[in-house]
Amino acid sequence: AYLRQSDTQPAEPKPSQTPTEEPGLDTREQPNNESPIQKSNSPSPEGTPKAAPGDSANGVPTFTLAAHESSEEDEEDNLPPPSFPALNSAQRASAPSPAVSMAPPPKPVSMAPPARPASSLMPPPTLKASNLRALPTPSPSLRVPATGPAPNRGPVPNRGLPTSNGGLMPTATVKTPNARGKVLLSPGHSPLDWANLQRSSKNLSGVPSLLRVTPSMLKEHNGRKGKPAWSSYEGKVYNITPYLPFHPGGEGELRRAAGKDGRKLFMEVHPWVNWDNMLGECLVGIMVAEEQARPASSLEDMD
Ligand code: HEM
C-alpha cells in the first residue's frame, strides 16, 4: 500500500476532489455505501481513478495523502456497518424492511430521557435548602430569636424614625435631583417652554436694536442691582436674563457667565449645546473694542 501511495501522490492534489463520477470509484465504494455520512466525512481520498475494482480491500487507503489518514480509513472500513437499531433489537426483528426500521428507533430511545427529568428534579431541593440557610447570615437583624419573647414588630432601634417605605431604602436620595447636576425647573420653564418663548415675537434681547458692545459695557451688564445679565460667546453678546429660569443647569450656574465671556465655562459643561440656537432671540449685539463703540443705529446701517 505504501508503495502505491507514493506512486499516486503526484497526481492527487486537486483532481482528487471532484471525480465522483469515475466508474472505478463506484465499484470500489460499494462496501461503504451503507453509510453516506462516513463517506462525506472522509478526506475523500477516493478521487483518483486508478483503483481497480478488485482492490477494494486495500485500495481505499492507498489514495490518501498521508499515512495516518489511510489508517483512519482502515479503521472505518473495519468498523461493522452502523446498525440502528441494534442488530439484536426488537425493532429490527419486527421491522419488515430497513427503511421502516430506521424511523421507530428514536422514539424508544427518546422515551428514556423523560424519566431523567423526574430524577433530576431531586438535586434542586438540596440546593434550595443550602440557599435558605445562607440568607439569614448576612442580615442578622432579620433572624427570629429561637428563644425568649416574641419579637417586637415596631421600628428597629438603630434605624431612627420609621419611614414610609418601612426603612428599607435610604431617604437621602432626594438631595440630588439627578446625577449630572441638572436642576428641577419650575413649572412653565421646561426646554419646550423656552422654545415656544423664542418662537414668540417677544423681544428677549432687551435692546431695541443690535449693539456694538464694548468690554466695559459687557462687564457692566452683570445681572446685579436690577441690571440685565449679558454674556458673550465667540464675539456675540446675548441677554441671558430671560433664559435664567429656563437653564437646566440652574440660574446660579448660568449667572457665573454674566457680564463676561462665558464660552470657556459653557464648553467645560456642555460643549454639545448650541448656544446660538438656544439664545438666538436674546442677541444683543457683537463685541467690539472699546474705541469702536458706536450708537446702536450705526451697526444696523452697516448691514
Ligand atoms: C448661556 C449659555 C448657556 C446655555 C444656552 C445653556 C444651556 C444648557 C442646556 C440646554 C442644558 C441641558 C443640557 C443637556 O440636557 O444635555 C444645560 C445644562 C447645564 N448647564 Fe448650561 N447653558 C449655558 C451656560 C452655562 C454655563 C455658563 C454654565 C456653568 C457655568 C452652565 C452649566 C450647566 C450645567 C451644570 C448643566 C447641567 C448639567 C448638564 O446638563 O450637563 N451652563 N445648559
From TrEMBL:
Residue ranges, annotated region (Disordered): 3-170
Domain Cytochrome b5 heme-binding: 210-288
GO cellular component terms attached to this protein's record: cytoplasm
Keyword set, alphabetical order: Heme, Iron, Metal-binding, Signal
Any GO MF annotation of the entry: cytochrome-b5 reductase activity, acting on NAD(P)H
InterPro entries, per the entry: Cyt_B5-like_heme/steroid-bd, Cyt_B5-like_heme/steroid_sf, Cyt_B5_heme-BS, Cytochrome_b5/Flavoprotein_Rdt
Biased composition, class Low complexity, residue ranges: 92-102
Highest taxon in the source lineage: Eukaryota
Sequence similarity: Belongs to the cytochrome b5 family.
Full protein name: Cytochrome b5 heme-binding domain-containing protein
Record lineage: Eukaryota, Fungi, Dikarya, Ascomycota, Pezizomycotina
